[in-house]
């Protein structure tokens, strides 16, 4: 994307006309059908970071997205937070060249100028994703270049990016399961966007964040795989074993024994509770004083 490139010439030639058409709803040519593809071509381009800067300097980007000026102006002389415009360009560049992911990357921090505040000496951009989605929606409304599916996906990606950033190894499996279920079909794309959002120059910090993302993905997929395996024991078997007088770990030990016997084809799977309780009574001897069992 150079000033003398064909893509640059095409943008300069057609963009102003498209902007006027989009805002007035009046068209005297077929350019309205051409420009959306042109914008998508730019956003997935190899040199998108250069294209964004050139479009900003040309004034084209400010006409497309007036609030881009707030992003460019968001700087801190004390270096307490990143140069937002440089960060945004780098994130878009690092993002996999898929249309929805690149647009989400461009808008993912647009809400930071509005959500910025300092409390007790600490800088916060709390819930900036909520504001970022609003800016994308406004852009999408002004320039009808997205299908319904694309629009919904981009909104989802922007809004939910913070979930991955907040992940910690200490999260219980139930929390990992919830976030994976919530992300649904967009889980992998959220992870791709999260990786692209790492722009720190500190190698150790970058590796730490990448490890957390990889760990979240691994745990989520392992939990999903485990959940997808149909339990050979009936629902409520734990309570039924408890009613026999067993507690805590002993209940788990008996269930493990049943599952092991099923796996070894010594016991039939997918039977009712009464079948397994009868089997337990026949197979095990009870020691009432300890609650322990012996096979």
Short description:
65% of the residues lie in helices and 3% in strands.
Could you characterize the architecture of this molecule?
The chain is mainly alpha-helical. 65% of the residues lie in helices and 3% in strands. It has helices at residues 6-24, 31-43, 48-58, 60-64, 68-73, 84-94, 99-107, 112-115, 128-142, 148-165, 173-183, 187-196, 203-228, 237-243, 248-263, 273-283, and strands at 117-119, 122-124, 285-286, 293-294. A two-stranded antiparallel ribbon has the order 1-2. It has a two-stranded antiparallel ribbon with strand order 3-4. Strand 1 (117-119) and strand 2 (122-124) form a beta hairpin. Helix 6 runs antiparallel to helix 7 (99-107), helix 9 (128-142) packs antiparallel against helix 10 and helix 12 (187-196) runs antiparallel to helix 13. The N and C termini lie far apart (75 Å).
SSE map:
Elements: H1 6-24, H2 31-43, H3 48-58, H4 60-64, H5 68-73, H6 84-94, H7 99-107, H8 112-115, E1 117-119, E2 122-124, H9 128-142, H10 148-165, H11 173-183, H12 187-196, H13 203-228, H14 237-243, H15 248-263, H16 273-283, E3 285-286, E4 293-294
Antiparallel strand pairs: 1-2, 3-4
């Amino acid at each position: 994307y150079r000033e003398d490139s064909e893509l640059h010439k095409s943008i300069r030639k057609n963009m102003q006309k498209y902007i006027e058409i989009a805002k007035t709803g009046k068209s005297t040519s077929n350019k309205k059908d051409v420009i959306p593809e042109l914008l998508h071509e730019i956003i997935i381009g190899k040199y998108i970071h250069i294209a964004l800067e050139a479009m900003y300097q040309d004034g084209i980007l400010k006409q497309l997205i007036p609030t881009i000026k707030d992003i460019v102006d968001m700087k801190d002389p004390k270096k307490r937070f990143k140069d937002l415009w440089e960060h945004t360009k780098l994130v878009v560049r690092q993002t996999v060249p898929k249309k929805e992911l690149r647009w989400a990357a461009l808008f993912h921090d647009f809400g930071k100028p509005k959500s910025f505040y300092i409390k007790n000496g600490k800088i916060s951009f709390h819930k900036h994703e909520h504001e970022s989605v609003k800016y994308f929606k406004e852009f999408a409304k002004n320039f009808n270049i997205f299908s319904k599916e694309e629009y919904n996906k981009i909104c989802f990606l922007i809004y939910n990016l913070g979930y991955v950033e907040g992940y910690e190894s200490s999260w219980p499996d139930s929390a990992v399961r919830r976030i994976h279920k919530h992300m649904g079909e967009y889980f992998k794309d959220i992870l791709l966007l999260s990786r692209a959002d790492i722009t720190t120059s500190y190698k150790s910090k970058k590796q730490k964040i990448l490890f957390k993302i990889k760990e979240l993905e691994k745990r989520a997929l392992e939990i999903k795989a485990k959940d997808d395996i149909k339990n050979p024991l009936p629902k409520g078997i734990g309570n039924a074993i408890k009613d026999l007088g067993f507690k805590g770990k002993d209940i788990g030990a008996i269930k493990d024994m049943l599952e092991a016997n099923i796996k070894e084809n010594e016991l039939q799977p997918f039977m009712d509770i009464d079948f397994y309780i009868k089997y337990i009574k026949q197979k095990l001897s009870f020691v009432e004083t300890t609650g322990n069992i012996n096979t």
